[in-house]
Amino acid sequence: MGREKAVPMQQNIRITSHVTIVLTLLTALTALLLAGFMWLASVKVDDFSLTRQKGYVEQGLDEQVKAVQHELESVTVWNDAVLLVAKDDHPWIAENIGMWMHKYFSHDRTYVFNERDELVFAMRDGEDIAALTFLGDEKVAAALREDIRAMLHKRTAPGDSNPPVLAEIFAEKILSIASRPAVVSARPIVPSSDEISLDPGKEFITVAVRFLDASAVEKIARYARIETLHFTTDAAETTAAIPVIATDGSMLGYMAWQPIRPGLMLIEQIAPVGIACIVVAMGVVIFLGRGLRKTTLDLSESRLALMRHRDQLEESVRLRTAEIERQREELDRLLAQERHVNALQRQFVTMASHEFRTPLAIIDAAAQRLSRTKTTQKPEYVEEKSAQIRAAVLRMVDLMESILSAGRLETGKTTLKPERLSLAEIIESCCARQMDVRKSHRIHRDLSHLPQTILADRTTIEQVFTNLLSNAVKYAPHAPDIHIRTSTKNGMSYVSIQDAGIGMDAEDLPKLFQPYYRARSATGIAGTGIGLNLVKQIVDLHGGSISVESVLGRGTTFTVALPNKGPLANLIKRAA
Amino acid sequence: MITVLCIDDEADIRQLIVEELTDAGFATLEAANGQEGLEAILSYWPDIVICDISMPVMDGHQLLAEIQMNHAELFNIPFILLSALTDKDNVLTGLRAGAADYLTKPIDFDLLLAKLAGCIARLENDRAVGRAL
């Protein structure tokens, strides 16, 4: 049962492990999906954010460029400017046009041309350039100045149905100056009101240069809130960049910046927490799995315990039943034995009575005969009857001895008195007595192989051979030859008594030495059933043994083995 | 002369009975067991049988049963069972099997002779009646 019971538990463990693995995998998969989703979301957010950033930067740039028109307007559409540039008030020009443009609008260079297109004022990075020189921007300045002149000319030229408004005349170019992107703008200095008038062709022209890679970048950066914004001509930095394109369409470079990636930032922010969460989740799953496993194991254990308990119960019930059955059988056996013993005892009483009555009958009949013939009898006749009477008495004495011995043995009152004796002598005397009583049989004996003396109890040993010899005679009524053979081996004396009588069935042999038992072949032959039992008990007491061989109809051989050194060891054992 | 067959395995008893019967004027036959007894009966047709019960080879009960079963012609011979078995079972078995009487050992010769006399009287009466018819 043990082995087959282990299987469900293993199965349970396997199922539990399976569940744990599946749960762990599911958790891992969920975590992976979640991470993937997060990553996708962050990429999307980043893309979106980048688009927004680009929009802001573009718009910032656009506004920076657009603002130039109005910045220039603030110093050119102005009555005071018209009056004071005409007077060539250099300090005023420097203060109110040059410095103004530089200080408030962050224009890098400011040039003022007079009505004759002569350069009258030049300021670079807030510094009045008295030398009135250009720095690589004279061409563009000239071009824009020409544009303004053309527009001014247009106002006065006849036939133009839609002349430009004076205050709105403006020219602008985005281009590269000394490899730097720049917005170059030009405006005529015109009156801001009708209070003063300016003759056409007398206009001064202001040209301003603003580089887009300096303060403009800072402004755009502030506007777009991108701190890392910078101008670059390196096309490699185009991940987060917008192109700066010149008015003629050529590429000037890029407004580039370190892209702000809120998605990535978010992931960076929450990644440790996420990982921690996943780890905790895995831990929880594993913990739960182990718990499940433990619970399953416990369940299996308890189920096994239950099964064991059930089996034990079944077993104990089975054992108890078997025990009861055994006890019943034992009782039956004892009862049968008791009945058998009772029957045997009844039979014994009957047979004992018979056995006593037979010699009594001889004595009585002989006595009657003596009495009836007292007048005619001869001395030989009296002698014969006396002999018959004495033989019968002897038989009765033997019988009585047997019964008394059996009684003593049964109650344990027999004590052996071992002495040095000659087994041969005892057997010889038993034979003599037997042949005296039963003249019909001859006892052939070879007693030469016995030791000189053995240690044994004379009375009981005599009973042994008397019984065996009388049996041999009694159960071989038609076979007058009885053989006694002897031998000595291993400190034991063996005496076998063989008759060629009626023999016994093999089934009778095992019970032969039981008290009152008589072989079935003995039916009709008087006997008490105590003789062989007595023999066996005596031999056992001497520490010897008795065996029997018999064939029905062919005869029986009893072999007695007696220890030469007597029953001492045996007695000691009994005493203990 | 009346012939009596004495069947007993005890030679002494047989001898004593035969002596007594001889003295009483009977002719006697001896057998040591039932088997020998049956052979003697078949050979000599005794007038009366005195039979022990406990005997080797074939006991008294078996002999009676054998005669009843297989030798009906011998059933007229009076059987006196003479046994050391005194229990009622044996007595009843013997009488039911057709024994004329059941005597127990020790033997009272007077009683035995009286029984024999009774048997003889009956026998002679039967024979006389048989002749008369």
How much strand content do the residues of chain B show?
A: 15-25%
Structural class of chain B: alpha/beta
| Strand segment count of chain B | 5
Q: How many distinct folded domains of chain B?
A: 1
Q: Helicity range of the residues of chain A?
A: 55-70%
Shape of chain A: rod-shaped
Rg of chain B over CA atoms, rounded to whole Å, is 14 Å
Uncertain runs of chain A are: 1-5
Largest sheet of chain A: 6 strands, antiparallel
Which CATH architecture of the domain at 414-575 in chain A is right?
A: 2-Layer Sandwich
Question: Could you walk me through the main structural features you see in this protein, from its secondary elements to its overall organization?
Answer:
The complex is a heterodimer of chains A (576) and B (133). In chain A, 56% of the residues lie in helices and 17% in strands. Chain A is built from 11 helices and 16 strands. A 6-stranded antiparallel sheet of chain A has the order 3-2-1-6-5-4, sandwiched between helices. In chain A, strands 11-13-14-16-15 form a 5-stranded mixed sheet, covered by helices on one side. In chain A, strand 13 and strand 14 (492-498) form a beta hairpin. Chain A starts with a helix and ends with a helix. Chain B is α/β, with parallel strands linked by helices and 133 residues long. Chain B contains 5 helices and 5 strands; from the N terminus they run E-H-E-H-E-H-E-H-E-H. Chain B is globular, with a radius of gyration of 14 Å. The relative contact order of chain B is 0.16. The A-B interface holds A 350, 353-358, 360-366, 368-369, 372-373, 388, 391-392, 440, 474-475, 477-478, 502, 523-526 and B 9-13, 15-17, 19-20, 23, 32-34, 53-59, 62, 83-87, 104-109.
